[in-house]
């Protein structure tokens, strides 16, 4: 590996993604429904965010149940025995409770033997942080096969009286399987970068059961929910995504022209187009599904990866740029050589695991 000031590049990490899956709740909440809840309208939401609808978890669904379904889909696409998974990492900022980790419930639900399991919380940057962690475990041979899940029930922490935030978020889960790269076969991690700036933490945050005193209470005197300075977050997001993406591409020894597909965090279509424009990527090479799901926080990138694979937008050997941004502030970029998933190589998924949840 070639050490750089900010990570490793050129020869890459000895890990690859061999399976992808997603699960989103059935219930669709349209902009028209939001019009009946707060002072907003479809035209404003579509023009300012690109979002048309989002999914909302059923009362009996949690981040662990959504994550387990996405995990099973990823296991099925990799065509592996779940008992061979030895590490489960769940990225979530909306866990079922303060503990245990959502990852342990997912480990049990998918039948991942006695795999090590823990959660990562880096808000919307959570999946990239969890994936980076799994890559290190696999590259160091501490893990043979890891399941990485991004799963969120954002509808449970959204302030449904705040039109500035409630129109943006949705629920869902996505997952990937990470295994060792194989000499002579496509698939590896070319570059990864994680960054943060805690001095800007108050621009986007949500209180919880351990938040002290008045900070725990919202303006309505109720438990506070997501609080955001939308304009400032927008500006920081575009700058951070552009800078980190360019750095990751350079660290991978590539140029933007080598990137077959960019799969960015899906928060706002305008953030994505501004980023793509400044990086020099035509929108045909950028995956966008924020119109259908809104911002599902740590689930956006794995959901988008699973859909891009299903849509035939990812081919073995493709260079894929992932880039995320979220509360913290926290952001990241990764360049991957796509391995292709076993199910798509074989044609059709097996369906053998469908009955587990
Ligand atoms: N419907 C109608 N009007 C709304 C509205 C809504 N849902 N939300 C805000 N407005 C109003 C504001 O009150 C303001 O009105 P005013 O001019 O009378 O004061 C006006 O629209 C413009 O508000 P502003 O906040 O400047 O809009 P914007 O163009 O910045 O868009 C966001 C707001 C939230 C969509 C945008 O700032 C954004 O996407 N920020 C990043 C958020 C994000 O991605 N967060 C997660 C990062 S992981």
What would you note in describing this structure?
The protein has 357 residues and is an alpha+beta fold. It has one domain: Thiolase/Chalcone synthase (Peroxisomal Thiolase, Chain A, domain 1, 3-Layer(aba) Sandwich), CATH 3.40.47. It contains eleven helices and 15 strands. The chain has helices spanning 31-35, 42-49, 63-78, 102-110, 126-139, 163-166, 230-251, 269-279, 290-293, 300-310, 342-346, and strands at 2-4, 7-9, 15-23, 27-30, 53-56, 87-91, 116-120, 145-153, 171-180, 188-196, 204-206, 226-228, 259-264, 319-326, 330-337. A hairpin with a 2-residue loop joins strand 1 and strand 2 (7-9). Helix 3 (63-78) packs across helix 4 and helix 7 packs parallel to helix 8 (269-279). The termini are far apart. Residues 1-10 and 347-357 have low confidence and may be disordered. Bound molecules: coenzyme A. Coenzyme A (COA) binds next to helix 2, helix 6, helix 7 and strand 14.
Q: So, CATH architecture?
A: 3-Layer(aba) Sandwich
Mean pLDDT comes to 91
Q: What number of domains? A: 1
Spatial arrangement of strands, main beta sheet: 3-9-8-6-7
């Amino acid at each position: 590996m070639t050490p750089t000031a900010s990570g490793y590049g050129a020869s890459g990490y000895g890990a690859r993604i061999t399976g992808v899956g997603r699960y989103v709740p059935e219930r669709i909440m349209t902009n028209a429904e939001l019009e009946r809840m707060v002072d907003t309208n479809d035209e404003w939401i579509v023009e300012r965010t690109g979002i048309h609808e989002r999914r909302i978890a059923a009362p009996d669904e949690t981040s662990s149940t959504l994550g387990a379904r996405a995990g099973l889909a990823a296991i099925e696409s990799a065509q592996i025995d779940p008992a061979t998974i030895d590490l489960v990492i769940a990225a979530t900022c909306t866990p079922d409770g303060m503990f245990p980790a959502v990852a342990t419930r997912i480990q049990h639900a998918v039948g991942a033997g006695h795999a090590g399991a823990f959660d990562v919380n880096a808000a919307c940057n959570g999946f990239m942080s969890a994936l980076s962690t799994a890559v290190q475990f696999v590259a160091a041979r501490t893990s043979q096969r890891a399941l990485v899940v991004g799963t969120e029930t954002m509808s449970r922490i959204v302030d449904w009286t705040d039109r500035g935030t409630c129109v943006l978020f949705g629920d869902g889960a996505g997952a990937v399987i990470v295994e060792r790269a194989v000499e002579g076969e496509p698939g590896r991690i070319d570059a990864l970068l994680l960054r943060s700036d805690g001095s800007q933490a108050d621009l986007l945050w949500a209180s919880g059961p351990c938040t002290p005193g008045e900070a725990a209470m919202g303006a309505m005197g109720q438990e506070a929910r997501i609080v955001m300075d939308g304009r400032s977050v927008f500006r920081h997001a575009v700058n951070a995504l552009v800078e980190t993406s360019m750095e990751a591409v350079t660290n991978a020894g590539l140029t933007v022209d080598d990137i077959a597909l960019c799969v960015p965090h899906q928060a706002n279509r305008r953030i994505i187009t501004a980023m793509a424009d400044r990086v020099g990527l035509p929108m045909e090479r950028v995956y966008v599904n924020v119109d259908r799901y809104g911002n599902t926080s740590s689930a956006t990138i794995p959901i988008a990866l699973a859909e891009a694979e299903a849509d035939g937008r990812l081919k073995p050997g493709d260079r894929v740029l992932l880039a995320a941004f979220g509360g913290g502030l926290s952001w990241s970029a990764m360049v991957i050589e796509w391995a292709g998933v076993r199910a798509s190589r074989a044609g059709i998924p097996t369906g053998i695991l469908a009955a587990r949840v």
